[in-house]
Amino acid sequence: MQSNLPNLKRTLSSTLIHFYPLAGNLSWLNEPNQPMICYTEGDSVSFTTSESDADFNHLSSSHLRNAIDSRPLVPHLPASGSIVPMLAIQVTIFPNTGICIGVTRHHSVCDGRGFAYFMKTWASCSSLESSESLPLLDRIVIKDHDDYTNIFLDELNGFMSSQSMSGNRRLRVMDLELKPNMVRATFELNEETCRRFKERFYPSSRLVAICAYTWVCLIKAEAKTGGSKSNSTRFVVNVDCRARLIPETYFGNCVRSCVVNAERTNLIKVGVVMATQLIRFAIQKAEEEGILRGLEDSLSIFLKMKFSNSKALVAAGSPQFGFYKIDLGFGRPKKVEMASNDRTRAMFLKESSNLDGGVEFDLVLNKQKMDAFVSLFVDGLHALKIEPLCPRTLHPLL
């Protein structure tokens, strides 16, 4: 495995030629008064290697484990206050067992689809295959006819100044503090289970149905464990806007968040049918009214939601990203996870690891809430006659 590291670095370097913003730094200077990703000749990406004596099979399994176990495998983006790098890579070697490639990116440079595009291009370079297309980096292709840029800049400027002790803007990376007793689990739904979800909650898609079911189970688990004092709840799903606005090869952020609001008591009483309708209608409304309609309030809503007592479940990732097909020269990954969802309250969606047409998602909760969630999740599948669930996913909790 160590013999492959020079090739991994070489192919990363070759890939960054086409994705050079990832080698740059985010800064927000007084002139011009807007954040910019600056790249100059000679800029580089941090690439570190380490060795671990941890249990590789445990870390790459789907069963319940401590969320903090993933932390040493992911690099940190150092921030100087006014400058933040865009990307860092850490390769952790488990002698005679396996290897972990940890990647940390700043979300300002690209969204999940853009990141998957970068990783696939890196994999193509590693296997000496030619990439089908080069990324489009020009931000000008997104036309801002309604001056959203200045609206968002004013919101961000006020927010970042309020979060700084000195009152000056400070570009920060995500707080790494992890609440105690947090555990991570992966839930695998095979193709047949996904098909039954779609049939049971038609006309909603299988992903909308799975997200709605997870949302309701989580609300019930919180009610059982006393996890929330607010009756309000939210579900957030991102809609990719590339096909509606720009070429699909655009590398950057091009998603619109759809925020679904509901009352916990109503969802507990009515159940998944109501949740699927709310999510489906929110997505349809965004698509029918225009993907940019009402965008002027989106950042303000997000910042208020971040600090409110009303917790939101966020759907991150997508089975369409194809992370399990990425081969960087070591074979297909045994496990793909988003380490940051231990503090973002996101369900990380991806295709099934065995590429059988199913879906899997990761969730991080405290141990008490996770136990309640698993019980509700499994019992609900039986009650709805939506089976089978991949048995190895939940076995350690039963």
From TrEMBL:
Record keyword Transferase present: yes
**Keywords, ordered alphabetically:** Acyltransferase, Transferase
An example Gene Ontology molecular-function term: acyltransferase activity, transferring groups other than amino-acyl groups
Q: Which InterPro entries match?
A: CAT-like_dom_sf, Plant_metabolite_acyltrans
Protein name from the UniProt record? Uncharacterized protein
Q: Which organism is it from?
A: Protea cynaroides
